[in-house]
From TrEMBL:
<dbReference type="InterPro" id="IPR000073">
    <property type="entry name" value="AB_hydrolase_1"/>
</dbReference>
<dbReference type="GO" id="GO:0016787">
    <property type="term" value="F:hydrolase activity"/>
</dbReference>
<dbReference type="InterPro" id="IPR029058">
    <property type="entry name" value="AB_hydrolase_fold"/>
</dbReference>
<feature type="domain" description="AB hydrolase-1">
    <location>
        <begin position="24"/>
        <end position="314"/>
    </location>
</feature>
<dbReference type="InterPro" id="IPR000639">
    <property type="entry name" value="Epox_hydrolase-like"/>
</dbReference>
<protein>
    <recommendedName>
        <fullName>AB hydrolase-1 domain-containing protein</fullName>
    </recommendedName>
</protein>
<dbReference type="Pfam" id="PF12697">
    <property type="entry name" value="Abhydrolase_6"/>
</dbReference>
Amino acid sequence: MDEVSTLSSPAAEHDLEANGQIGIVLVHGFGGGVFSWRHVMGVLARQVGCTVASFDRPSWGLTSRPHQKDWEVNQLPNPYKLENQVDLLLSFCAEMGFSSVILVGHDDGGILALKAAQRVHASPNSVNSPMGDNIVPNSGIKVYPTSWISFPSLGSMVEIKGGVLLSVSFTREVVPGFARILLYTSLGKKHIVRPLLQTEITQVINRRVWYDATKVTAEVSSLYKAPLCVEGWDEALHEIGKLSSETVLSPQNAATLLQAIKDLPVLVIAGAEDALVPLKSAQVMASRFVNSKLVAISRCGHLPHEECPKALLAAILPFINNLLTKSQVHNQ
């Protein structure tokens, strides 16, 4: 499900109406979900005074896991492809009523956020919108798409004001190597592969990505294990495995992406002890944007929003408040 946290403080620094329905959208990475942002979502909404929404990507969280026949029979795009998730993300932003957004993406969710910014820049007047991957107003319920419609003005309606990239790399395959091997094992051996996959993914998410593994409590483990119990999780992961190279950008594709969004304000956040995306990689990432800043969080691994939420909020609040202030001045 997607989740929304709205302003609860009467003494907000920024007024939603004055900011033209600007919102902050959180996009999780591999193995995450709405639950991944539980330590920062509410605090962020109260501090900045605008709506903060979390987008649950297909194949993760507690969202539905469509089977291949579901989209082939209905002649729909594959929801696990990164380019199609860009459509879903922009549609979600529009359905939320946002005229402009600040995207916060973790890991390959950051790649998705950057590609969304590229899409808006490249096609300002036309975006295909899937009807279903939207939040039903006032309910928090999401339905998988059953049809596609065209929103001729969607691109111009949703402006991306800036981006926050957490532990993002252009060159890393997010699906672990051993998991990729298991995913290519015959589906006829599901009874063998499933428990091995669950163990491997859980180990990666709950141990290898943390600097301080003592913070991986039983509650944290259960949250990250839950998506691996949703019906169809293994087939969805198989699709993700087949498409995992999409998150590895060739030098040419990376250059094209960066050129398209060269003026986008970007804050790059890195865990100083991140074993998956080293600090040097984050430094290179930040250097490739014209308007960027890098913040390294000490004693932190690959999940700053889980392991060091207070330090993360201290890093992103000035950046977001600055963008909101500029938006407010522009709208006056």
